[in-house]
Amino acid sequence: MLEKIIIKNLKSFKNETEISFAKTNYTILPQNVSNTDILKGAIFVGPNASGKSNVIFAIKLLLDLLFQDKSINFQFIRCLFSNDYKFSISYCFLINGKHITYSVEIEIRKSIIYENLEIDGQKLLMRAGTTATSWIAGENGLVYDEGDIDKETLFLRTLYFNTKFTSNSDLKTLMEYLQNSVYINAVERRIIHYGKKKLQIYDYLNENGTEKINSFLTKYNFNQTINYSHQSFGPNSVLILDNNDPESKYIFVKRNDIKVPIPISLESLGNQNLLQMIPAFFATLTNPGMLIIDEFSSGFHPKLERMLIKYFMNTSEYSQLFFVSHSTSLISNSVMRPDQVYSVEFNGDDGSSVHRFSDDQPRTAQNIEKMYMSGVFGGLPRIKDNFDED
C-alpha cells in the first residue's frame, strides 16, 4: 500500500511537499484503515486550479512510467514558474510488512534520470543517467551501462520486464499491486488499467456479462438492472437500435418501477458514469491496487457518492482509493476520517500546498464540512460572493 509521497518542483508543486497516508490517532471508521495502519484512501478538495489533480497526477505518473507504452514530455511536468529544471518524486510503500522507497529525479535540460530503490533502508537500485547498479538479485550487485539503459526509460521498468523480480518476492508483490491499479478521469470517461484489463463498460460486458453488475445494483437498492443484448423487451415494446447489424449489442437500463428498456445513451450523466466506474471498483477490490479518480463526483447525487466511498472502504482489504472531488458532502466523519481529507491551495509564486485536516485535530463530534466551508482548513476559493457589498 502507498504510505507516503514526496513531490518537488512537479506541476504546481514548486516546494517539497510530503503527503502521508498513514493513519493518525483517530478511532472512528476503523473500516477505512487497513490492518497495516495505512489508510485505504484519501480525498483532495480545494478551489479550481489549486493543484488537486496534480496530486493525483503524481501518483499516476509512476504507473505511466512503469507500464504505459508511450513517451512522456517531461518539459510540462516540472513546475513552469520555477527556475529549477529538475523535478523529483519519492514513493513510499508498505509491502509484506516492509517499507519500500522508490525515488526518481529527472533533470530535463540534460536528459538525466536518477533512480533510487530501498527496502527497509537497504539500497537495491541506484541509477544516474546511463549507469546503474542493482543489488536486487544479489549482495554483490550488478553494474549496468549505456548498453543496458535507455536514457528516457525508468531502469526499474527495464529490470521488471526483463526479470519479473522472481528473485525478490517483495518487489514482485509491489509491482503486481501497481499493475492492478486503475486511473479514471470521470469527465473524459477515460479508464486505464495498468495490467491491461479491459474495463470500459462494453469491453467488460463482452467478457463478463451483466450478472455481477446486476447483483451489485440489486444488493444496494438501485431500483434498476441492465440488459446487454441486441434487443430489449418491455411490457408493451421491443427496442432494437440497429436492425442492420444483428450481432450488435447495447446497454439497456430497466427500472424496476416501469420496466421499460432505456438505452444507456438516454440515461442521466450520473447513471452513465456509475456504469462506467463499476468495473474499475470490481477490479481493484478483487485484486489489491490503487483506484485513482479525477473529478469523482461528476454527475453523482451526494448520497450516491457517499455510498460508493463506503462500499470501497468496507470491501477493501489492501486496495486504496485516491480521488479529487468538489463535493463537500464527502467531508464528513461518517464517510472519511479527518486524516483522509486534504485541502489544496495555490499560493502564487510559492505554488500549491497541501493541508491535512487531522493536523488541526478536529473532534469527531464536530461538523468538519462546515468547518471547511468556514475556512478552518484552508483550500477555499477566494472569489467574492457577497453581492450585498456591491
TrEMBL record:
<dbReference type="GO" id="GO:0005524">
    <property type="term" value="F:ATP binding"/>
</dbReference>
<dbReference type="InterPro" id="IPR027417">
    <property type="entry name" value="P-loop_NTPase"/>
</dbReference>
<feature type="domain" description="ATPase AAA-type core">
    <location>
        <begin position="43"/>
        <end position="117"/>
    </location>
</feature>
<dbReference type="InterPro" id="IPR003959">
    <property type="entry name" value="ATPase_AAA_core"/>
</dbReference>
<dbReference type="GO" id="GO:0016887">
    <property type="term" value="F:ATP hydrolysis activity"/>
</dbReference>
<feature type="domain" description="ATPase AAA-type core">
    <location>
        <begin position="227"/>
        <end position="332"/>
    </location>
</feature>
<protein>
    <recommendedName>
        <fullName>ATPase AAA-type core domain-containing protein</fullName>
    </recommendedName>
</protein>
<dbReference type="Pfam" id="PF13304">
    <property type="entry name" value="AAA_21"/>
</dbReference>
